[in-house]
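Record type: monomer structure entry
Structure origin: computed from sequence
Chain ID: A
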Amino acid sequence: MRIDKLYIVLGFLLLSQPFFSQTESTDKNEIVEQRIEYIGGDNESIDYSTLFDNLYYYYDHPVNLNNIKEVDVLLEMGLISDIQLVKLKQHIATNNKLMTIYELQAVEGFDMTTIRVVLPFVKVSEDLFTPNVSFKEMMKNSSSELYIRNIRDLQQKVGYTEKENEDDNRYLGSPDKLFLRYRFRYLNKVSVGFTAEKDQGEEFFRGTQKQGFDYYSAHFFIKDFGRVKALALGDYHFQVGQGLTLWSGLAFGKSVDISTVKRNAVGLRQYASADENNFLRGAGVTFGLSKNWSLSAFYSRKRLDANIGDTLDDVTNQVSFTSLQNSGFHRTFNELTDKDAILETHFGGRVEYESTRLKLGVTGFASRYGGEFDRNLRFYNQFEFSSSQNSVIGADYNYVIRNYNFFGEFSRSQNGGTAYVNGLLVSLDPRFSFTILHRNYGRDYQNLLSNAFAESNSWNEKGIFVGFDAKLNSKLTLTGNMDFYQFPWMRFQAYTPNTGGYDYTAQLQYKPSRDFVAYVRLRYQQREINNSAIESAIYNLSSEERTNFRVNLSYKVTDYLSLRNRVEVVEYQKGDNNKEYGFLAYQDLVFKPKSKPYSLTARYALFDVESFNSRVYAYENDVLYYFYIPAYSGVGSRFYLTARYKYRKKFDFWVRYGVWNYRNEETMLSGLEQIDGNVRSDIKFVFRYLF
């Protein structure tokens, strides 16, 4: 059996050597950034730091494909699908351990595109290495990272000028944005670390912030120690099912990658980001009851920023709050008034059954708030959560049979509101796959910890999403998706029930070689919103339409020089109003000489965008662990230069300068953020020490 495998492997080795050699000269940063841009879409508000962490870590510490307990990580990072994961495990169970990485081509469902994505993060080893946890062992196979980042705007904003009188509102602190993080990791078994952040305008070791940073976070996490499958102390994430009942942390929306419509839950995981809201604080644990059954329990208690209303009880000092504040900014006395105003408590648990093909789970939790959530009622929000307590219970499933992956979740909130989502991923052939997802989130479903796939929110929405991925030949790939959705009740900017819309996306990619890739993408969006131009007792609706057309080229000129080009046009129209247009063109240069400790990335962009409605989004290469998708609006140019220097394998330095130059503008931004003139620039510094 092993001799037969050897002949097969040798054949693959000879035939595919040019293909596999491409990763040897590919830069780690480039691989990670390209992957995140592909699956991230145009959402500028998502915190991708957790995904950055994992991709960078497993690039330096590849997953051993022969270790069945480790390969699940590939699913968590979105590198493979559930179907491919099952096929890989079946291949190993049938044919014994992989002899070499080239044998991936013999695994059903692993085409060249998938292998190209996975290859930088995996290895094949006969030694499965079951660690004997001890202090000596942890020190030998562990890694530590100290990361420091500073960002500063170079133009003075109104918020930093001298007060003209005592009533003027100004920022209390400096314009520096500081970020500090330390993290210790032992394989994927142990993670210990802390994070601290100061936003621009916040004080630092003086005044209202005598403790230093405005935000602190710390965590202790262990995984797979005896019956303890996971233990999280401090700040952590808990992700289950399809995100309908409980989901904390990163969750993707719509993108070209159709697999992102399915949530790949990771259960309990450590939290080491700078988002001041989207995490749990306390403790969580998952016990393995048997080979297939596990039990989880969690408790979270933290304070939230909120707008305080009236005092409801003079004895208990119970208050009401009208809204939660998620910006994390505490720069002025007004913003400091909202800081840590409300205590939030969550506690609950989960029972789960998991085999190779099937996962079933039931999750329930209760929430308590140190005040009454008293919303400012409008037409559109009267069914949204407005109380001091809530409870949610849900059931989810994930089942793989042959080349079919069925998944879904049902959830019910304390008030009786319900929501459900069901989906199917099908791989008919390594060259063709498609997905379909149906969702129905009730208008009265109430859950502040829900983060399921949606156009808007995980309530007051129903729709159906269909997508496909077709490899036409070795060079051409066609992907596309359609999303039809409806809002049963009113929503913000649409004060009529049963409004809706649809979203079409199609992309054709041409990749004749490893050094050249080009694609064209067309996206059309249509939805109904209020027509503010019409004054009437009855709200009138208009159709809002947006069309994006993009052409993108990326090619390697030499071993050390790559170029990227993009042209994108946006057409926007609301009702019978005149069409508005947005235009963006840029040239990227990536200079990374072999065997040199430095690299450079630069961009020059020209844009002409009539209004914010026709804005154009574009991902920018940035410093380590920083993800930036700005909205290009107005008329002008954009330039940035990012430089990296590596010293003796342990020290990394980044510096980045970026500038916006607008035509015919006397001021930019507004309020305390206003800048006089037509130039806005910033500089970033990053230091990292690995030990």
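Annotation 1: The longest strand covers residues 541-556.
Annotation 2: The CA atoms of residues 262 and 411 lie 16 Å apart.
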